[in-house]
Design goal:
The structure is a single chain. The chain is an alpha+beta fold and 1135 residues long. Among the domains are: 148 residues, no CATH class; 88 residues; 139 residues, no CATH class; 218 residues, TolB, C-terminal domain (Neuraminidase). It is built from 34 helices and 33 strands. Strand 23 and strand 24 form a beta hairpin. Helix 2 runs parallel beside helix 7. The N and C termini lie far apart (115 Å).
């Protein structure tokens, strides 16, 4: 009995809970931070509307959960997200909460991880790092968002922990943990290649330094520079050399280098990641192989999609065998080096890595091709996408936009930490880094444009000078290690790691083609670690002594000084005597008075009690606390106030909250209609499983595929339904609305909603002059501050330029039953009725052309023009040529052919030309649309001149004067100057007859003089210019100097399809004729915008059109219309 009693006393269940742990304030604060992390990640989780990509992720996860399977595709990143989300669905069901719970869980883990870095961050530093991750706007936002980034960051931070645990303890367990975390990181997201590369710079640099120091008689600075820049190839050389000696049986008498911890970690990374790097080996082989065999060694398309892989395996088995042979060789090569390193350790690492890799990428052996799409497609696909640069963001997107706007706290503190460390401990190295950084800036601003200008038009090309910027920036990564690592100071090793990590991801993500707001997370986290490490040192002071001297008042005064100085910078005093101007002047004087009367004396009297170092320390801490408070504010606004509002730059392709509103209406309709007998309806009510029938198209499918997953009656009809609708609700995007309307009849009432929208991008094409203007101009400073602090812009949300809408149709008989669903857009007399009244029937007097590729035949003729002799020139767009006819429509000649793909376009070739104009001398100007250039020919098609290259101005008119983005129309003034609508760049450009830039006008927007998809262009006899501002649905009129004169609305051009491009022609009386391609009609206005007549309808007779586009008048006043869909030109007599 005594024994039983003793066992009961020592039993785990009988031990006091608190006896097993020590609860101190550090742990209490950490527990509080983690608790806040849980609350902030879960609070109101389903409120935000689903993002486009987020809906895809959860829908694919739902497919896996419901037994429909999942196939890995690197376009949508790794399989971990889909499989983990499906597992959560299995446990808790599928809904808008469980769809985001997986990310929230990992977000909580991320906040807790700094606790385990206390030995290197310091106890206070670990708390600060965790707090920064808690309040970070980007980390918080995307911890509540079904994306891959939070997963890969948890695994990456875990790898960093494993690295430092191994450095500290040398236990094999941490090597195995590194292997395990590495495979999960690869299964999460391809950004793992970037993190692995950055870690490799540190590990190889550390190994090389430790290897060389006892073996060469170089200075530490020389060794450090060599180790930093050439550490990776040097380690590879040492491994190869030592492995070769082992094969020869030579004993290594000097093997102490094997005890360097970075060697073991580097071997884990290298031998496990090497097979996934096979595409990086194959890509250089491709060009060589093409020269030898004129075939591809490797097609990336084969390894991005399982179905494509199967198809290419059957059609091109030789290619598959070549790639598989090389891949197997790389796998064996990595295994041999792993076994040479340490057979037992490597086998354990491989057994942890490869089974998990195979299980995740093959979705538990249900998708065998997933092994190859993961092994080769993961890196291969994203290397192929590098030049695509999805999102079109500038290289400074993170450094000058997202980090300063949201993550200014870790950004500024982290960079300041590096400069402080180098200044205090590594001054000479700091000068090297600053010198190199200064060289990059001088080269980019001054030398690069000069050198590019020297080689303009030569075979060398200016691209090499752009690539040099990238190469120079890459050097900053090893230079960071060089500047930080000091072998005589063990405390420098950890900052060398986190500084290299922070600078490495800033450089590499800025270089990567695709830049998105969620990727800012990957820059924020290492900066938070650097900040926590530095602030731990900042807090190491005698605060008790300073408190007795009034440190709190000193800190408050310094904060007040900063706030007042910011207010001073954005004020615009002494601008006039109007009430608002006097108010601004008064505010400025009040701020100056506070600085002089309150701040300055307080700082003087209190500051005398402190040393300059103490004042700097208190000021830095006060500034950090101020930035922390602002960070909390911005996080709160982004996550809980504006989570699906495009005023936040943190979002991209975000579903509008209108989607939530629409779904609430659908659920309410389902509840009420399915709960009552449908009396009085003209059609039956569809009610299956308590849900009505909802039809949606391919232009609004995301996020509605996710939202409607459990609607058994949901009907996806693609671009066109093919039959009249009977659904209670029909959802249609602008691309398909014209095609869908006939199937809706008069049975539906419409509401207009936002589907997806994007933030404003006024930061694009930033130049040194624009920066200077922001600094000098108080109004611009004020506007910038208002946009940053309040997220208020000149553009109203109702007129937001970057938005994709959808129409929400409810059946009228259903709406009549439920009074609150009465028509949201009630039919009302409108300008459209006037168009009906003004419609007349005109019949063409002549037509020519038919479908085909022969002389006189067309494949979508887009535009037409006449010369002084009456000859007719037709842009045969999809045949990529120009055809010339005499005044009787008899074929004369033709010229042009399709430009070769992936090669510079030779003169006289085309890629879907659209616009054309002929000058008085007979020279022909052609808008070679998708070669992004203008070509000039003589009247017989001989090339005379060409100008323009591809360039995206991001909607800024005054930039890139010789670059186009899909030019559509050309018009000539009386002096022969050439006007071009640079449609994709939202501007009109003016050139001399020889292609010299004379002006750029417009820019993206809805204000007078701004454009959204300008296409048609016409010039009247007085020199006034008329522009078809398509997506703003208006004509804008300008004088000959392109000063705005007038604008009027056009009741047309609703859809944004690639063929709905209206053109303009001006008759001898200055009347304005425009085409309405989708509605198959021509609209006539007076020169001041008065509607005069409308003619045309869908059809094939001489009174009808099918996608009419270009039009032009001959000398007799006859109107020629390119009826592109009917493959003909119609001629109307003086309409």
């Amino acid at each position: 009995m005594a024994v039983i009693a003793d066992e009961r006393k020592t039993s785990f269940l009988h031990k006091p809970l608190l006896a097993a742990m020590t609860i101190d304030w550090e742990r209490v604060i950490f527990i509080a931070i983690v608790a806040l992390g849980i609350v902030t990640r879960l609070w109101d989780l389903p409120y935000r509307a689903w993002n486009h990509d987020e809906a895809i992720h959860t829908d694919w996860s739902w497919n896996l959960y419901t037994g429909r399977g999942y196939q890995h595709n690197p376009i949508y990143h790794g399989p971990f997200l889909y499989e983990f989300t499906a597992f959560i669905f299995f446990l808790f069901g599928d809904n808008d909460v469980t769809g985001r719970i997986p990310n929230a869980l990992f977000g909580m883990v991320l906040v807790a991880l700094p606790y385990f870095f206390r030995k290197w961050l310091g106890r206070k530093g670990a708390l600060i790092t965790a707090a920064m991750l808690l309040i970070s706007p980007v980390v918080l936002y995307y911890s509540r968002f079904n994306r891959h980034d939070i997963y890969v960051e948890v695994f990456t931070v875990g790898m960093a922990l494993a690295i430092w645990k191994y450095f500290d303890e040398r236990k094999e367990f941490w090597l195995y943990a590194t292997a395990l975390l590495l495979v999960f990181a690869f299964a999460a997201m391809e950004t793992t290649f970037i993190f692995a590369a950055v870690f490799a710079v540190f590990l190889c640099g550390h190994f090389t330094f430790e290897y060389l120091r006892p073996r060469v008689r170089w200075s530490d600075m020389r060794i450090g520079l060599f180790a930093a820049i050439l550490g990776i190839p040097f380690l590879a050389l040492i491994i190869g050399y030592q492995a070769f000696r082992s094969l020869r049986g030579t004993q290594d008498q000097d093997a102490d280098w094997r005890a360097i911890p970075s060697f073991d970690l580097a071997m884990v990374f290298a031998t496990l990641a090497m097979p996934l790097l096979t595409p990086a080996i194959i890509y250089p082989l491709n060009s060589l192989w093409q020269r030898i065999s004129r075939t591809d060694f490797f097609s990336i398309a084969a390894f991005t999609d399982v179905n494509t892989l199967t198809s290419i395996t059957q059609s091109q088995p030789d290619m598959i065998l070549r790639v598989l042979g090389l891949t197997i060789a790389v796998i064996l090569f990595s295994a041999l080096f792993g076994m040479w390193w340490n057979a037992r350790r490597w086998v354990i690492c491989a057994l942890l890595f490869w089974p998990i890799f195979i299980v995740t990428f093959t979705t538990v052996f249900t998708n065998g091709g997933g092994f190859f799409t993961g092994l080769l497609g993961s890196l291969g696909y994203w290397l192929s996408q590098q030049p695509v640069a999805r999102g079109g963001q500038p290289s400074y997107y993170y450094l000058l936009v997202t980090l300063p706007e949201y993550e200014f706290l870790p950004y500024l503190v982290g960079l300041a930490a590096m400069v402080w460390f180098w200044w205090r401990y590594r001054t000479l190295q700091l000068l090297v880094v600053l010198g190199w950084l200064l060289w990059i800036i001088v080269y980019y601003i001054a030398l690069r444009p000069y050198l590019s200008g020297l080689v303009a038009g030569s075979n060398l090309g200016a691209g090499i000078f752009e690539q040099l910027v990238v190469a120079f920036a890459f050097v900053l990564i090893p230079l960071t290690f060089f500047a930080t690592y000091n072998p005589d100071d063990p405390k420098s090793v950890f900052p060398a790691f986190i500084f290299t990590w922070a600078i490495g991801v800033m450089v590499l993500f800025s270089w990567a083609g695709e830049k998105m707001p969620w990727l800012t997370m990957h820059l924020t986290i290492p900066l938070a670690f650097a900040s926590g490490w530095a602030l731990d040192k900042l807090l190491d002071a005698d605060w008790r002594s300073m408190r007795t001297r009034g440190v709190v008042w000193l800190a408050l005064t310094l904060v007040l000084a900063v706030v007042l100085l910011v207010m001073l910078a954005v004020q615009r005093p002494f601008q006039g005597v109007e009430l608002q101007q006097l108010s601004a002047t008064y505010g400025f004087l009040v701020v100056v008075a506070l600085l002089l009367v309150v701040v300055a004396p307080t700082l003087y009297f209190i500051g005398r009690r402190f040393s300059l170092r103490e004042i700097a320390r208190v000021g830095a801490l006060a500034l950090v606390l101020l930035m922390a408070a602002l960070t909390i504010r911005f996080a709160w606004m982004a996550v809980y106030i504006n989570p699906d509002n495009a005023v936040e730059t943190i979002i991209y392709a975000q579903g509008s909250h209108d989607n939530v509103t629409a779904m609430q209406e659908i659920y309410e309709l389902s509840r009420r209609l399915c709960a009552q007998v449908a009396v009085g309806t003209t059609q039956p009510i569809h009610c299956d499983n308590g849900t009505i029938k909802v039809a949606y198209d391919d232009d609004s499918s995301w996020p509605f595929v996710w939202y409607l997953r459990n609607f058994r009656n949901a009907q996806y009809y693609g671009a066109s339904p093919g039959a009249p609708f009977d659904a209670e609700v029909v959802i249609v995007g602008p691309k398909n609305e014209e095609q869908v309307r006939p199937f809706l009849g008069n049975k539906y009432t419409k509401r207009q909603y936002k589907l997806i929208w994007w933030p404003l991008e006024g930061y694009k094409d930033l130049t040194l002059q624009r920066v200077v203007d922001y600094i000098r101009d108080p109004q611009q400073r004020s506007d910038l501050f208002t946009a940053w602090f309040y997220h208020q812009y000149k553009e109203s949300q109702s007129q937001w330029p970057y938005v994709h809408n959808f129409s929400f149709y409810v059946r009228k008989d259903v709406a009549a039953m439920l009074w609150n669903y009465a028509p949201g857009v009630a039919p009302q007399p409108s300008e459209a009725d006037e168009y009906t009244k003004k419609t007349v029937q005109l019949t063409a007097t002549r037509t020519f052309g038919s479908a085909g590729v022969g002389n006189g035949q067309f494949n979508y003729p887009r535009s037409v023009a006449m010369d002084a002799q009456g000859n007719i020139y037709v842009v045969d767009s999809d045949n990529h040529r120009i055809q010339k006819f005499d005044s009787t429509s008899k074929f004369v000649t033709m010229w042009g052919s399709k430009s070769p793909d992936n090669l510079p376009a030779p003169a006289g070739t085309f890629n879907q030309p659209w616009g054309i104009a002929v000058d008085k001398s007979g020279s022909v100007y052609v808008a070679d649309t998708w070669n992004h250039r203008i070509q000039k020919f003589d009247s017989n098609g001989k090339p005379l001149l060409a100008w323009g290259t591809n360039g995206d101005t991001r909607g800024i008119a005054q930039s890139l004067p010789l670059q186009f983005y899909g030019p559509r129309a050309i018009a000539l003034d009386a002096q022969g100057n050439v006007y071009v609508t640079d449609t994709g760049n939202k501007r009109v450009m003016k050139f001399s007859p020889n292609g010299e830039p004379l002006g750029q006008y417009g820019g993206v927007g809805v204000e007078n003089g701004q454009f959204q998809e300008p296409v048609g262009l016409g010039i009247d006899k007085d020199g006034n210019v008329y522009v078809a501002d398509t997506w703003n649905q208006r004509i804008q009129k300008f004088d000959s100097n392109f000063n705005f004169l007038a604008q009027w609305r056009v009741e047309a051009w609703d859809s944004q399809t690639v063929v709905n491009k209206p053109y303009v022609a001006i008759d001898a009386d200055n009347n304005v004729f425009v085409t309405d391609p989708d509605a198959a009609r021509v609209i006539k206005f007076s020169s001041d915008g008065k509607l005069l007549s409308v003619f045309g309808a869908i059809g094939v007779d001489l009174s009808s059109f099918n996608l009419p586009t270009g039009l032009a008048f001959d000398a007799q006043g006859n109107l020629h219309v390119a009826d592109s869909g009917n493959q003909r030109v119609l001629i109307f007599s003086k309409p």
